[in-house]
Amino acid sequence: MATDTGPRPWLDSGYADVVGARNADGDLEVEFADGDVIRVPVSTFGISGSDFSVGFDPEEALSVRVTASSGEPREISWTQLRSATDAAFAQEMRQRDTEESRRLGLRLRALREDRDLNQRDLAALVGMSAPQLSKIESGVFDLRVSTVQTLLRTMGATLADITGPDAVEVSRREIRKRAEQAGVPGEVTDRLIARTERGSLVDVITRSFGWTKEQLVAGVPRLPRVASAVRFRAVRKGNPEESPLVNLAYEVARIVCEHATLPPYSGVPTDPSQVRDDALDANGQISLASLVEWSWDAGIPVLPLYGRGAFVASAWTVENVAAIVLKESREVAVYWLFDLAHELGHVALGHLEGGGMVDAESLQLDKSLELDEGDANEFALQLLLPDYKDLVRSVERDTRGDYLRFKGAVATVAKKANVSPGILGMVAAYALKEIGQDKDRWGSASNLARSEGLGRAMVQESARRHLALDGLSEAEATMLDALVLLPNEGTA
After folding, report:
1. C-alpha distances in Å from residue 325, one per residue of 254, 364, 427, 444, 487
2. How far is CA 91 from the centre of its chain?
3. Residue 62 has pLDDT above 50, yes or no
4. Which of 49, 134, 202, 288 is least buried, going by the fewest C-beta atoms within 10 A?
5. Contact 229, 351 (CB under 8 A)
6. How open is the CA angle 144-160-145, to the nearest 5 degrees?
7. Under a CB-based contact definition with an 8 Å cutoff, are residues 219 and 203 in contact?
8. 61, exposed or middle or buried, with CB in 10 Å at 0-12, 13-18, 19+?
9. What is the pLDDT of residue 28?
10. What are the angstrom distances between the C-alpha of 437 and each of 389, 429, 430, 433, 467?
11. Residue 65: is its pLDDT beyond 90?
């Protein structure tokens, strides 16, 4: 007798295909394409007497037709025939029936929750007890067709809602809860839910975060293994390796690199001055808008990702093409500008090693950082503020030790050097720790930076110009639409 780990002939070719059938001295004898010949009393199938004829459709070949002398023809499927003669297959069918009952119960529960009905209210509407409905939704109660139809009718649904290709086994509310337990910020899941049809939501969620459908339905999404070599830098707190947002960033980069129409990838020169010369805006400065456009023109997509926590920026290589994903929580453009310049430094200096680099925090300029971070910072500073050390010294000289002069000194030095006062203010606020208190310098630097606009909006506008969702799968298009291209309602 077959066991769970034993032979499973029903998976082999010919097990289900009827090639012959006849009345054998009052018993039904059937031959299958795999050579098996079975013999079973017709009374097993509720047919009385021994006077009957047998036929089958050689084109369909999945059932036999038994016609008794005093009755209508009766179709007996191959599953009935095999169950009556193969105990292991009969057990398999029972297990499948149990699993189907469980799945049907889950779909009814998901449908109820998506209708914002609790068990007690729905049970009262259909005239059953809440415990009875609970057993149905748990798959431990044998369902009658009439019961299913009553439940569906009460919820304004049809059989297709629980049996069709779009039937789901987890409600939106439960998906949000399980995703949040696995580390996905609720606002990220909310965006995906808002942009996704009910029947496609499980596919979108699992594709976004690298889970399997089985894990999500079972309620235990596990941290996926990102399909790329990845290193983590500037980690001061938490553990970004455990965040599903890292897998999301890679998926976004992969979709764009594999499907978007991009200029030929030309890489990033190792000399930051070369990038600067090519990326100056109309005012002769490096701005966020001009550096983002330079990146796209170089075949490097720059993608703003929605969602708080885990990391602020990352760079990836997909099919030998680099992509940069920015997820800075601060909206001021100068932070996004420095993050982008820093990630371009990682690309230029060969830090990606055919995989990805994830930076947990931004604009960290102290000497305790890893070597790669220090090198990427130096690249960014030379790109954005040539001779930045001299510029900072000029700011220090002009303040004359008075923090009240800090803002004016930064603005004056920046104007003379024709560089961003926002970036110079941020760098000087880090470097000149002896001038006033941190809050004083940073307050002044922030005031200078605000005039340069909001970073996410700029990067998002550029991405919308360069990306088209045509040709993507529904799940891929939804991810980009909801988490990259869709404007923010507020700060991520």
Report:
1. 11, 18, 23, 29, 16
2. 37
3. yes
4. 49
5. no
6. 10
7. no
8. middle
9. 95
10. 21, 10, 11, 7, 44
11. yes
Give per-residue pLDDT as tens, 80-107: 999 999 999 999 888 888 788 888 888 9
Q: What is the pLDDT of residues 395-422, one digit of tens each?
A: 999 999 898 999 999 999 999 999 999 9
d(C-alpha 188, C-alpha 59), whole Å: 52
Instruction: For 318-343, write each residue's pLDDT tens digit.
Output: 988 999 999 988 889 999 999 999 99
Of 112-121, 135-144, 380-389, least confident by mean pLDDT is: 135-144
CA angle (257, 258, 263) in 5-degree steps:
55
The pLDDT value recorded for residue 1 is 37
Pick from 138-152, 199-213, 391-405: least confident: 138-152
Q: CA–CA separation, 240 vs 222, rounded Å?
A: 14
Contact criterion met (CB below 8 Å) for 162 and 152 = yes
Angle, CA of 44, 45 and 48, to the nearest 5°: 80
Q: Token digits for 50?
A: 């021994």
Average pLDDT score over the chain: 88
* Under 8 Å between Cβ of 302 and 326: yes
At 307-320, the pLDDT tens digits run: 988 889 999 999 88
The whole-number pLDDT of residue 103 equals 84
Tell me the CATH class for 90-163. mainly alpha
Task: Name the helix (H) or strand (E) containing 95.
Answer: helix 87-114
Same topology, domains 9-85 and 90-163? Answer is: no
Query: What pLDDT is attached to residue 70?
Result: 73
State how far Cα 289 lies from the chain centre.
28
- Both tokens of 278, joined, read 């090519």
β-sheet bridge partners, residue 324? 302, 315
Q: Are 340 and 359 in contact (CB under 8 A)?
A: no
Distance in angstroms (rounded) separating the CA atoms of residues 470 and 477: 8
What is the distance between the alpha carbons of residues 285 and 423, in angstroms, rounded to a whole number? 11
Residue 364, C-beta contacts closer than 8 angstroms, at least 6 positions apart: 234, 236, 373, 377
Domain topology for 9-85: NE0471 N-terminal domain-like (3.30.2020)
Instruction: Break the chain into its structural domains and give their ranges.
Output: 9-85, 90-163, 172-218, 230-384, 388-450
Please give the helix or strand (H or E) that residue 24 lies within, else none: strand 18-24
What is the spatial distance between Cα 444 and Cα 437, in angstroms, rounded to a whole number? 11
The answer to whether the CB of 28 falls within 8 A of the CB of 64 is: yes
Could you tell me the two tokens for 418?
A: 């024709």
d(CA 81, CA 451): 79
